[in-house]
Write a structure and sequence with these properties.
Layout: E1 5-9, H1 14-29, E2 33-39, H2 40-47, H3 52-56, E3 60-65, H4 72-75, H5 80-87, H6 89-101, E4 110-114, H7 119-126, E5 130-135, H8 139-146, H9 148-153, E6 168-169, E7 178-179, H10 191-207, E8 213-216, H11 224-229, E9 233-235, H12 258-264, E10 271-275, H13 284-297, E11 301-304, H14 321-324, E12 329-332, H15 337-341, E13 346-351, H16 355-363, E14 368-369
Parallel strand pairs: 1-2, 1-4, 2-3, 4-5, 5-8, 8-9, 10-11, 10-13, 11-12, 13-14
Antiparallel strand pairs: 6-7
Helix pairs in contact: 5-10
């Protein structure tokens, strides 16, 4: 019998792909064969980033399935992508599994799927394949999802996940409080997306029960109350590429390495690092206020400005801003964030506090502005 063959499928978003690729690299180090599944759209973005092929090598076989979205305009429509995850991708994944198992290669030994797309685990169970669920976020998120029936029963949320009133809740006396207006699935102004995320969350409660292992990109030291409350969650984090002195992989944009040279020239603990993940969109006013705030603070800063970070304009900077901050400010499209956060010049992290950013900052002892 050959090496175990694991089919890995993330939720189609950068923050889910990066930790699962890192876990895949760990499995390769232990002799596993990995087939990694992305949507065609995300696959092209990842593979077009400079240097990614050298980081992945030949050990991880990257394959694609369709999400059924034909145009970029459709992809931007509220709820379109999250609906595709529910309606289109399951059939495509099942076809892929049948194709792999019907070929001359080694059959799939285990499906390792993002916890938020539990239908992949259901497909694996139907085909008699072993199953592992992976949560790329905090264990507290899993505890929250598992408590959805209780939240509905207690009148905290409606059947569609909408909070019935703004309040603060605790899932256990030891866990931190949560604001109901900031629950995982709540998307003000985007009800189609909220409906789809809530439906995925509800379905994952059932799907995760068929998993033989429930893995989480966290550690007991960060969340003892959550791991105590749901004891079958296995902490395997933090999954950081810096642990292996190799760059992370899965970024949708080519990383700008020149900013590391700029950081080398700054005093220790002097630079404000500013980054808001792969989804955050600012309207022009918000973007300009942030820019002016960075200018007024009169400190060196490194600001990650994605090509699509602003809504409705390609040149959203305040007039003359780039010239005024040229001697102490750097604006870049994408960076190797783990390398930035481990740099001695970085003083603090202005962040949207996505889980990957949180554990990367905490692991390097960096103070946060949230």
């Amino acid at each position: 019998m050959g090496n175990p063959h694991v089919l890995v499928i993330p939720f189609p978003a950068q923050g889910h792909i990066i930790p699962l690729l890192e876990l895949s690299r760990h499995l390769v180090d232990h002799g596993f064969k990995i087939t990694f599944v992305n949507t065609e759209y995300n696959h092209d973005r990842i593979m077009n980033a400079i240097g990614v092929k050298e980081k992945i090598g030949d050990q991880i076989h990257m394959v694609t399935i369709s999400d059924g979205i034909e145009t970029l305009e459709d992809r931007k429509k509220p709820g379109k992508s999250s609906r595709a995850v529910l309606n289109v991708m399951p059939e495509k994944l099942e076809e892929l599994i049948d194709r792999i198992n019907g070929s001359n290669g080694e059959e799939i030994t285990c499906v390792l799927a993002d916890q938020s797309i539990g239908w992949a685990l259901e497909i694996a169970e139907k085909k008699g394949i072993r199953r592992a669920a992976f949560c790329p976020a905090a264990a507290a998120l899993l505890v929250l999802v598992f408590n959805i029936p209780n939240l509905i029963r207690d009148g905290i949320i409606a059947d569609d996940g909408t909070p019935l009133k703004k309040q603060t809740i605790r899932l256990s006396p030891e866990m931190l409080a949560m604001n109901t207006k900031q629950l995982l699935w709540v998307c003000p102004g985007n009800l189609p997306m909220q409906k789809n995320i809530f439906e995925l969350s509800v379905r994952s409660i059932k799907s995760v029960k068929v998993a033989e292992w429930l893995l989480c990109n966290s550690t007991y030291d960060l969340e003892p109350a959550a791991f105590t409350l749901v004891q079958n969650i296995l902490p395997i984090g933090p999954l950081l590429a810096s642990n292996q002195l190799r760059g992370s992989v899965g970024n949708f944009w080519t990383e700008d390495a020149t900013c590391l040279n700029w950081l080398d020239q700054q005093p220790p603990h002097s630079v404000i690092y500013v980054a808001f993940g792969s989804f955050t969109i600012f309207d022009p006013t918000q973007f300009q206020e942030l820019a002016l705030g960075l200018e007024l603070c009169n400190r060196p800063f490194l600001w990650v400005v994605r090509p699509d970070i602003t809504d409705g304009t390609s040149d959203a900077y305040p007039k003359g801003f780039q010239e005024r901050v040229a001697t102490r400010g750097q604006m870049v499209g994408s960076v190797a964030q783990q390398k930035i956060l481990s740099h001695p010049s970085v003083a603090c992290f202005l962040s949207h506090c996505g889980w990957n950013s949180t554990i990367e900052g905490v692991s390097n002892g960096i103070p946060f502005l949230c």
